Amino acid sequence: MDDQKIENLLNLSLQATPEERARSLVLEEGYFPEENQWELIVKYSGDFSRAAALAQRVSYLLNEYAIVWILESRIDAFAALPEIEYIEKPKRLFFATQQGRAASCLLPVQREPLSLFGTGVLVAVIDSGVDIFNRDFQNPDGTTRIRALWDQTAPAREDMDPSMENSGEAVGQEEGTITDVSLGRVYTEGEINGILRRGGISETGRAFGGIAPGPGGFVPGEDRSGHGTAVLGIAAGNGANSQGRNRGVAPESPILAVKLGTPDPQGFPRTTQLMQGVDFAVRQALAWRMPVAVNLSFGNSYGPHDATSLTELFLDDLSNYWKSVIVTGSGNEGAVAGHTGFTIQEEQQETVQLAVAELEPGLNVQIWKQYVDTILLSVIHPSGAAYQVPVAGSGAYRVRMGNTELLLFVGEPGPYSVNQEIFVDFLPVEDYVDPGEWRFVFTARRIVKGKVDLWLPGGRILNAGTRFLRPSETLTLTIPSTARRTITVSAYDSRRNTLADFSGRGSFALGKPDLAAPGVDIIAPTPGNGYGSFSGTSMAAPFVTGSAALLMEWGITRGNDPYLYGEKVKAYLQKGARQLPFAEQYPNPVVGYGALCVEDSLPE
User: Is the pLDDT of residue 203 over 70?
Assistant: First the structure.
């Protein structure tokens, strides 16, 4: 007889035969046939001791929930206890990459007759490294899928393990592999295979993939944050650790990985390392005569956000070089109140309020306007003291206000931009910037355009209370996602068809982002052959990177369109993008042309 304290699916499972359970996709989930034991979710009230005595093991959760491991023969007695309110069996998660693939219309193009999996198209991920021992990046015979790994943090090649030099797996083993780099060293496919055979261990003593420790104690590309491993897994992992369930978008693409160096051991990579990494990826693809899809999931908030910085211009140039596509995430600054802006008319005055939290060790504000406009600026301390910024003349200025020193720079337009920057750095005289409400008062004199934008530092390095009091979500894209020829990807929740609030927004004038991809609760590989849940536009971008590889496989590798790269890939993806229920106008500054749909992006 069905027990009303037990959910329907568990009731059905308990009544099914072992053969029926084994054939079902859901009934056996949570059951361990060797022990005839179940893993169950329990809601209870009061004292749980009698129930715990019936269980093999209990894991207590907050608010009177528990996970129990219990013999099937004891479930009826367990459910009969008055303190037990309800019991459910666990459900298999249809992992977000799997669900994200379906939402992105990938499944139809990976069935016959198309069967697109990225064959012959290089996927390059420039990030925090990669777990080379992770089986998601290996072939069925245990050899690596990584054609080259540039570890910018590695010892120089002349310092390499002599045993590797003598192993027949050293430099030059793979024809065309570029090994002459400015920092770190490049590991070839043969070298990585040699390391996999011998085993390796990290500098912190963590073994990877069950591999025994090897010589030297250095693991090439070691991904201590897990970010790069997750990104690469979404773009091109083969899902070997999950029997293919959690495979990435282009699971048969050869891989190129760049682990970005960090000049400051406590800091993040710089745009210089990023640019070198992109350069290496495109040059290497050309040397191998392979089309390449490059993924960039890094960014920053410094700049006018108009595609005129050197990093952006560099990426635009490389987007026209060889058969390449460069994909960038739009950043996660959409909801952090780090941008504000306004349009001012002549003789008007606008005030921007900036809340500075307690214990803020430092911050800065970028102010960008068009040089043609004449706008006066005063900075007002929380005490009411004011400083008139000498905007008429360029140069650096210093002023002390309370226990904070302001270091200001008034700039001029550069060779690539008509914009003028006023940069204000807040430096504590003692330990922290003076807290409270700072104000920036703008007074218009001669106005042609009148557009003014202000940005705080990105990357969530400031205290949560440090924010503009009237923020604007527009122009919260991070740089270099503002580069014109990259494919800029925002994030949405593909299970609920809602926008991810953190996703960076563009503007109608900028024409970014280009489209959206799943970026909420994405299950992706982690170092050590596991999987974890990740959110961010960092995870949305590799969906598009892998999809670009599929389009280039169809066009270039299979000969259907030898010119399917660069802006043409972007155009196809934009045309195939599907509209989402929360937006009415397309393209728009939130999701561009809509959500990624690879099936509709292929020509009919």
Answer: no
Q: 438 φ, ψ to 5°? A: -90, 150
Say which residue the tokens 């697109």 belong to: 116
Residue that the structure tokens 């050309």 belong to: 286
Q: In what order do the strands lie in the sheet with 436-446?
A: 386-389, 374-380, 436-446, 349-356, 467-468
Tell me the pTM. Answer: 0.80
Cα–chain-centroid distance for residue 113? 32
pLDDT, tens digit, 9 for 90 and up, residues 46-83? 999 999 999 998 878 565 877 788 999 999 999 999 99
Q: How confident is the model at residue 2 (pLDDT cuts 50, 70, 90)?
A: low
Predicted confidence (pLDDT) at residue 304 exceeds the cutoff of 70: yes
Mean pLDDT for the stretch of residues 221-246: 94
Helices (H), ranges, 73-178: 75-80, 96-103, 162-165
Phi, psi of 107 (to 5 degrees): -60, -40
Domains of the chain, earliest start first: 8-88 (3.30.70), 99-299+310-333+482-601 (3.40.50.200), 339-468 (2.60.120.1290)
Sign of torsion over alpha carbons 390, 394, 399, 403: positive
- Which residue, among 138, 149, 145, has the nearest Cα to 241 in the 3D structure? 138
**64 φ/ψ sector (left φ>0, alpha ψ -120 to 50, else beta):** left
Judged by average pLDDT, the poorest of 7-16, 243-252, 258-267 is 258-267
Query: What is the structure's pLDDT at 427?
Result: 87
Give the pairing of strands 122-127 and 255-259: parallel
pLDDT for 204: 38
* Nearby residues of 480 by Cβ (< 8 Å), 6 or more positions away: 271, 274, 296, 299, 309, 311, 312, 315, 328, 486
Distance CA 586, CA 593 (A): 6
Distance CA 42, CA 25 (A): 22
H or E stretch including 256? Answer: strand 255-259
Tokens of 379: 């900075």
Q: How far apart are CA 2 and CA 8, in angstroms?
A: 8
Give the whole-angstrom CA distance, residue 270 versus residue 126: 12
Beta carbons of 381 and 434 less than 8 angstroms apart: yes
CA neighbor of 435 nearest in space, from 352, 337, 361, 335: 361
Nearest to 299 by CA among 338, 258, 262, 328: 328
Q: How far is CA 201 from the centre of its chain?
A: 26
Give the pLDDT of residue 213.
35
